[in-house]
Write a structure and sequence with these properties.
Helix content of chain A: 40-55%
Order of helices and strands of chain A: HEHEEEHEHEHEHEHEHEHEHEHHHEEEEE
Oligomer: heterodimer
Helix content of chain B: 55-70%
Number of strands of chain B: 4
CATH architecture of chain B: Orthogonal Bundle
CATH topology of the largest domain in chain A: Rossmann fold
Number of strands of chain A: 17
Strand order of the largest sheet of chain B: 1-2
Distance between the termini of chain A: 84 Å
Largest sheet of chain A: 7 strands, mixed
Largest interface: A-B, 43 and 47 residues
Radius of gyration of chain A: 24 Å
Order of helices and strands of chain B: EEHHHHEEHHHHHHH
Distance between the termini of chain B: 47 Å
Number of domains of chain A: 2
Strand content of chain B: under 5%
Shape of chain A: elongated
Number of helices of chain B: 11
Largest sheet of chain B: 2 strands, antiparallel
CATH class of chain B: Mainly Alpha
Number of domains of chain B: 1
Radius of gyration of chain B: 20 Å
Strand order of the largest sheet of chain A: 9-8-10-11-12-16-17
CATH topology of chain B: ABC transporter involved in vitamin B12 uptake, BtuC
């Protein structure tokens, strides 16, 4: 008994001596930077997360680690290690995990999850623990109202986005190509806010809105809505839609024999999947932000690298902004180190050059990117409005459904 | 907000909801309701067969619909098989899977247990099954939206227009539902099933083999779910998580129509479809869920055994 006890003590003493040794050696090889986030791999948000955000996180990690790691000011390069879970599209799960990342894991940096509602829920957590976070897939005027000092949004927010749509429609109306506009929106944070921005923007443009209808998330039949619009004589359709109902509304427009001169839809139109699903989707318009034809440094390389790694194209709206948010973070860490208040100060003051063009934050909102309208033309989502950012000219009326 | 509120001024009386009730609108509602209700009826029939007969509430019912939909999608987009022909594959396959599942999982559970523990255990089992099937689908087909166009053409009739694929899918669903009812009504096996539903002990006394009938019904229930999935795949985008809402709707229909009542199930499915569609046309799309739960609550208050329950 005694012997065994002595052996145990000896072993314990030896290991106690060895563990710090191992640790020092690990430090000599530069500890990896730990970056935490949650991503919806299952549940209703999985579609958007899997197209727009997750592929860009892993692409960036691969690229940075292939160069020997992320350059940290004063420390040299450190490998990137992700600490992440599937939040199952449950907001509570995400909030809990972000709390844990900040307090228990004490990760070096945080990346945001996918979607407006998710970002809305975790943004206060990021603020509470002083983690700067750049949300690439968050649209809501409420972010500005809440004035979250550590949260930054990349995408064009509701008001400027709908002003761009209004200007495009006004142009078509002035040329006599459309007369009456009908609006449908999904009853979720995204649709509600965009619809709220639509009223003032369309009124200011003097557009004749003949009908506005909402429908619930997960709607299974939108033909009654579309038939109503058709009977009301609308020749421009503006759908503030989410991916599943976006597909539904597009296929049903064809099925109820309605081909308005302008057919504009929301989230999902810019997905390559949408183009492939509707045989080119020729002439369909949607919210856009980017395509591989833009003239920004690294845009084409980004597109190619994305296709190489994931065997699928990035989407034509937020994908490039998700990647750009990581470019911004990379530059901040390179120049300010891992000191989070310093990163925040740099985010507030700097204009960044990214694959998605120049990005400049004012009170947390990216104000350098204009609201953009895209249109599928010969397999590319051409940016057709505003004309200053255009890669092609708008085609109105759209051709017949394929 | 709603400027115009649905300008359907093609003659007729005001319906009092700011909508003009015309013959065309009535046709829209009836056909639209039947196309939704036909699908509801078929998926509910399968659940009713399992729950009504064995008191096994299969929460994973909708997952077999999802699998049926994915198999049809894969066969159609991969090998160009006509989606309608795939019913001949998904139906029998699901039937065989159902037989096997019953033999391996449910039969041991059903043997010699008290009714109360049986229901809760089968519930746990099917919840487990649901997660396994969802995640298997996630691994095989990924979370990306999948879908294809089939018969996505307008069908013009009496001055209005309907999606051809929906009408076809609902017609097939209804035909299958009615055919199954006729089978239950007139075949010997069907009579045995009905006997077991009405009087389990009496049925055993006259020599009906309970476990065999249970197995067949479990298989038939899954087959109906999978076949509905094949039909649904022509209409909607697929995700690994599409099943659960159908399970919930099926449960509503089963309760509406009365447990174990097949005619009730068919009628309740159609009724639910009609009520939902009428709500959407006359008021707003947002009212769809509210109207279906309102009908359910009303029936539960007025006639707790279901519309056609005894």
């Amino acid at each position: 008994m005694n012997v065994r006890r002595r052996q145990f003590l000896k072993a314990a003493a030896v290991s106690a001596a060895v563990v710090p040794l191992l640790r020092t050696r690990a430090r000599a090889q530069a500890k990896p930077i730990r970056i935490g986030y949650t991503m919806s791999a299952t549940g209703p948000y999985a579609v958007g997360a899997g197209i727009t955000q997750a592929p860009n996180y892993t692409l960036w990690q691969d690229q940075v680690n292939a160069q020997g790691g992320l350059a940290v000011k004063g420390e040299g390069r450190r490998m990137i290690e992700f600490v992440s879970i599937d939040d199952r599209s449950e907001i509570e799960t995400a909030v809990r995990f972000y709390e844990k990342l900040a307090t228990d894991d004490k990760v070096d940096l945080l990346l945001p999850p996918w979607g407006s509602a998710m970002n809305f829920a975790i943004a206060p957590v990021a603020g509470k623990y002083g983690y700067p976070m750049i949300g690439p897939t968050a649209i809501s005027g409420k972010f500005k109202e809440l004035a979250l000092p550590y949260f930054y949004t990349m995408l064009v927010q509701p008001a400027p986005q709908m002003q761009a749509v209004a200007a495009m429609l006004k142009d078509a109306r002035d040329q006599g190509k459309i007369k009456k506009v009908a609006v449908a929106y999904v009853n979720d944070l995204f649709g509600i806010e965009l619809n709220a921005a639509t009223g003032p923007a369309f009124r200011a443009a003097g557009l004749d809105v003949v009908d506005t209808k909402s429908y619930p998330l997960g709607a299974k039949d939108l033909s009654p809505v579309l038939k109503g619009f058709k009977d009301a004589g609308a020749d421009a359709f503006v759908g503030l839609t989410y991916p599943p109902d976006n597909i539904l509304v597009t296929s049903q427009a064809k099925e109820v024999d309605w081909n308005p001169a302008v057919f504009f839809t929301g989230v999902g139109t810019a997905f390559p999947f949408y183009r492939d699903r509707f045989k080119g989707a020729e002439g369909v318009m949607g919210i856009a932000g980017w395509n591989p034809k833009v003239k920004y440094a690294g845009a084409k390389e980004y597109f190619d690298a994305h296709v190489r790694k994931h065997q699928k194209e990035p989407d034509r709206w937020a994908s490039a902004f998700a990647y750009a948010s990581l470019q911004i973070l990379e530059r901040c860490v390179g120049e300010a180190g891992l000191d989070r208040p310093k990163i925040k100060a740099m985010l507030d003051a700097t204009e960044f050059q990214t694959v998605a063009g120049p990005i400049k934050f004012a009170k947390g909102e990216n104000v350098a990117t204009p609201g953009i309208v895209g249109q599928w033309q010969k397999n590319e989502f051409e940016l057709v409005w505003p004309k200053a950012a255009a890669t092609g000219a708008a085609v109105v009326p759209k051709p017949a459904w394929a | 907000m709603a400027q115009g509120g649905g300008d359907r001024s093609r003659g007729g009386a005001q319906a009092g909801l700011g909508v003009t009730l015309s013959p065309t609108l009535l046709l829209d509602v009836v056909i639209g309701g039947f196309t939704t209700g036909g699908i509801y009826a078929l998926v509910a029939l399968g659940l009713n067969l399992q729950y009504g007969l064995m008191r096994v509430l299969n929460v994973a019912h909708g997952e077999f619909l999802m699998l049926g939909a994915y198999v049809t999608f894969s066969l159609h987009t991969g090998w160009g098989v006509n989606p309608l022909l795939t019913l001949l594959i998904t139906g029998p396959t699901a039937f065989a899977v159902g037989l096997a599942l019953h033999r391996l999982l449910y039969a041991p559970l059903l043997a010699g247990e008290a009714a109360e523990s049986l229901e809760s255990r089968s519930l746990l089992l099917s919840f487990g099954l649901m997660f396994v099937l969802q995640n298997a689908a996630l691994l095989i087909w990924s979370a990306d939206l999948k879908g294809y166009s089939y018969l996505a053409i307008p069908l013009r009739w009496l001055g209005t227009v309907f999606p051809a694929n929906r009408v076809l899918a609902a017609a097939i669903a209804l035909a299958l539902g009615v055919a199954f009812y006729v089978y239950l009504r007139y075949s010997l096996t069907g009579k045995a099933v009905r006997a077991l539903m009405q009087e389990p002990e009496g049925a055993q006394l006259v020599g009906i083999q309970t476990s065999r009938i249970h197995g067949l019904c479990f298989g038939a229930g899954l087959a109906m779910s999978a076949v509905t999935g094949s039909l649904v795949s022509m209409l909607f985008e697929l995700t690994p998580f599409m099943g659960l809402p159908y399970t919930v709707t099926a449960l509503v229909v089963v309760i509406l129509g009365g447990l174990g009542n097949m005619v009730g199930c068919l009628m309740a499915g159609l009724l639910l479809g009609l009520v939902e569609t009428a709500g959407v046309y006359l008021a707003s799309s947002d009212i769809r869920l509210i109207s279906s739960y309102a009908v359910l609550s009303l029936i539960l208050v007025l006639k707790p055994s279901g519309l056609f329950g005894r």
